[in-house]
């Protein structure tokens, strides 16, 4: 079986209908091997002493981001990119009780724009899933690992990272150490003459800043590539004279349009946010993340983050976690910020995050698969009847929280295409179908559900 979805990182603002997106995914070239054929263990990437040239993956030649090599890279990020560790802390791991179920692979749904049903198990292959954990009322009801990922390994989160720092910033706003009504330049005078000089912190948090910055990955001239080179995510070409850190890059971003007019997804906003956190706390961003959130979760494994050439953590997408530890973060948010016997995030902050953002402004982003959604505090909000909200990252990274279904789904992926326009038509209906299945089961066993619902 061959996948025919193109390896493209299309700008999400393209005005694609769901039907057109799915049709394009089914007919366009090039053709890629499916999830089984591209399994990194089967392909024996980086195996041998030394690995033969045709099985080597490296940073300098960009092979680490080519498909199918990236299926290995995403579970071995620290072997390719400079990183800094985030210790889990000294306490015991928090308990995730197991209540595995054998009926969930057969859960059925119809993809967006489709007519034929698909099972949950089929959707995992369709989206090149590396690992997935489903929690229901705090219990692990489903868990799978494939390819290069193991239960004790870490995986790159990409832009799911943004939601961690958005949560920290929301906590600081609630505490009063960060004023979301203030101009960014009042905290960071280095950005006075940039696009962010007259933007408010709130506009940065909700990504309604006006910038001459394109995150259209399919465009080789888009500013995202300059951002990536400055952040050390891409190698510098010979004779490179551009910015050599994110601190150097951000002041070069120019304003285009009016702040607050509409949503536009740009990773530069999160890097400004990480800089604000560093400036206000006087600590590296990864240390703030470790102290405020990660060390409070009772994580099983240490985490780590990619750093730019100046040694600063890449807040827009550099975090690497173990899968169950990502699920712990999601479960903490589902439980109103309380986890592992402590209030990690104030309940009022979680409530504000869950409130979501301005749906009218979100329309400016042109997300065909996210009609009626919004973006707030670096989280994505469905505004559906379950109040589901997400942290999202390219190539299939997801943290999906469904408060009504009392469900959390943490997923790592390594799809050959990045944009959610090709992932959402399968992923989002699958998540909703899983919620329906779990809610149906819980109604049939109310007595057990009452016990499972007790918070630590």
Number of helices: 16
How many domains in all? Answer: 2
Overall mean pLDDT stands at 91
End-to-end distance? 46 Å
**CATH topology descriptor of the largest domain:** Beta-lactamase
Radius of gyration: 21 Å
Q: What is the CATH architecture assignment of the largest domain?
A: 3-Layer(aba) Sandwich
Largest sheet: 7 strands, antiparallel
Which class do the helix and strand fractions yield?
alpha+beta
Strand adjacency order, main sheet: 7-6-17-16-15-14-13
Quickly name the level 1 CATH class of the largest domain. Alpha Beta
What shape does the CA trace take? globular
Describe the structure.
By secondary structure, the protein is α+β, with helices and mostly antiparallel strands. It has two domains: 2-82, no CATH class; 118-145 and 155-452, DD-peptidase/beta-lactamase superfamily (Beta-lactamase, 3-Layer(aba) Sandwich). It has helices at residues 18-27, 40-43, 70-73, 120-126, 160-175, 184-187, 201-205, 223-230, 246-249, 267-281, 285-292, 323-334, 347-355, 359-362, 420-444, 446-452; strands at 2-3, 32-33, 83-86, 108-109, 118-119, 129-136, 139-145, 155-156, 303-306, 319-321, 338-339, 342-343, 374-376, 379-381, 389-393, 397-402, 407-413. Strand 14 (379-381) and strand 15 (389-393) form a beta hairpin. Helix 5 (160-175) packs across helix 10 and helix 5 packs across helix 13 (347-355). It is globular, with a radius of gyration of 21 Å. The N and C termini lie far apart (46 Å).
